[in-house]
Amino acid sequence: MKTFDYVRPSTVVDAIAAAAAPGAAYLAAGTNLLDLMKGGVVSPKRLVDVTRLPGLDRIERLPDGGTRIGALVRNADLAHDSEFAKSYPAVAEALLSGASAQLRNAATVGGNLMQRTRCSYFYDAASACNKRSPGAGCDAREGENRLHAVLGWSDACIATHPSDFCVPLVALDAVVEIEGRDGGREIPVQFFHRLPGDAPERDSVLEPGELIVAVRLPGEARTFAAHARYLKLRERTSYAFAVVSAAACLKIEQGIIKDARLALGGVAAKPWRAREAEDALIGAHPDAAAYRWAAEAALAGAKPSGNNAFKIELAQRIIIRALTLAATGTPARIPALPASPFSSAAGIPHNV
Amino acid sequence: MSFSISLIVNGSPCDVELDDPRVTLLDLLRERLQLTGTKKGCDRGQCGACTVIVDGRRINSCLALAVSHDGADLLTIEGVATGDRLHPVQAAFITHDGLQCGFCTPGQIMSAIGLIQEGHAADDPERVREGMSGNLCRCGAYAGITEAVLDATAAMALTDRRRSA
């Protein structure tokens, strides 16, 4: 790890000023950043430690029924907040399916949005990577790429975004609150992360020095609580990133889907909102035919970026499965294996 | 640049001068405080051998900068026994053969203590396995580890009930 200056401001204003210096990076728990620094993937000249900034560690119920989550709330604290988990069960399940208990105890809400891709060529400083080193090329294109993107990728970059948490956030229209030198602004999580295009080095729309201070879920998001699931296929049952995942949230009235939310993880450089699939579901009966139609709509624009055509079919099966589970109803308690296809509701076969 | 930090380590106050901001809690414990019970496995947050309890929460000490944890209260494997009397989790690991080579064991035990305090797994072996998935054991002692955690959870609950009776 290359050395750096370390500063620990005590106000948001001071933090933003300190992070304006070239080569500065914010440090929260550091569970991703320190890993990247140890590997020589990133080498910030200055770390601006935001962990002592006041007021960013609260979960607040808003007057409109929404919830404001401070950027420094730890993943585990959010997932185990019983009021939060009851109101946004797919978000809690996604959080608990990510990383390990130790990492969830440390990692923050803001840091989760800011984590970098786990593409092994991005991580390997000896490989060509346009995200790490713009213009260097992409060794993933001709390399081990079975886990790479099938939606929204470009010739410059085929990496995926690794977050679980962001997938239901995107489905439920969450908003990121940002502070910067010119004041505050907010942006839907859906538009926070960028597709690679010809500038894959820019993961998000954050400008240099801007700081995430909170994530907000609208009040409407809790109206899906009775039929909300997150499902994540991994190469091992726990403590692994998604091969493909899906957040599925439904509103069912008198046997008809009145509203639907669907987003995918592990398929693109950003959490992928599947609006065409949502439109296909609204007004339909919650049955296998509707789910298959929605799944096909969601992946209609997909194409393999390498040896990963299987992910297109797999994503459709995960969507069907997630919708089936969501329609069955949110379980009273998060399953022992959160988001796992091996933690199925009774009567739903494992081999859909 | 040098930094002064104050910690509580296994109940004792401890002031440390850091000459380098890169020092992790893991390196601080092992290299500066000679508390080598906490192990460095991968040093990248993947194996859990470095698990310690910081301000009541189990974390990977390899991914925590010491300078960022000024004022923290640390519990390591050296601090869990009472004199010669083992912590119930330590005793259960011996009873159930929850180890072979022993390298991952301090991290497993600290993680198990954290898991039991969190209170989400209780007597469900699936939840114990899921809750312990951040600790790898290359010898494959997982079956014994799960039994040990379940047994220690029950023993500690019994002790708590007796205390409150």
Describe the structure.
The complex is a heterodimer of chains A (352) and B (165). Chain A is α+β, with helices and mostly antiparallel strands and 352 residues long. Among the domains of chain A are: 5-52, 2-Layer Sandwich (Uridine Diphospho-n-acetylenolpyruvylglucosamine Reductase, domain 2); 224-328, CO dehydrogenase flavoprotein, C-terminal domain (Enolase-like, domain 1), CATH 3.30.390. Chain A is 26% helix and 18% strand. In chain A, the strands form 3 sheets. A 5-stranded antiparallel β-sheet of chain A has the order 4-5-8-6-7. Chain A has a 4-stranded antiparallel β-sheet with strand order 9-10-11-12. In chain A, strands 1-3-2 form a 3-stranded parallel β-sheet, with no helix packed on it. By secondary structure, chain B is an alpha+beta fold. Chain B folds into 2 domains: 3-79, Ubiquitin-like (UB roll) (Roll); 88-164, Orthogonal Bundle (DNA polymerase, domain 1). Chain B is 36% helix and 15% strand. Chain B has 5 helices and 5 strands, in the order ββαβββαααα. A 5-stranded mixed β-sheet of chain B has the order 2-1-5-3-4, covered by helices on one side. The chains are: A alpha+beta (352), B alpha+beta (165). Chain A binds chain B through residues 1, 3-6, 8, 27, 29-31, 34-35, 38-39, 47, 49, 51, 74, 76, 80, 99-103, 105-106, 237-239, 336-338, and chain B through 1, 3, 20-22, 24, 43-45, 48, 51, 57-60, 63-65, 67-68, 111, 114-115, 118, 120, 124, 126-127, 129-135.
Quick one: how many beta strands of chain A? 12
The CATH class assignment of the domain at 224-328 in chain A is Alpha Beta
C-alpha-based Rg of chain A, rounded: 20 Å
Superfamily (CATH H level) name of the largest domain in chain B: Beta-grasp domain
**Tally of individual helices of chain A:** 12
Strand content of chain B: 15-25%
Structural class of chain B: alpha+beta
**What is the CATH fold-level name of the largest domain in chain B?**
Ubiquitin-like (UB roll)
Number of strands of chain B: 5
- Which fold does the CATH topology of the domain at 224-328 in chain A refer to? Enolase-like, domain 1
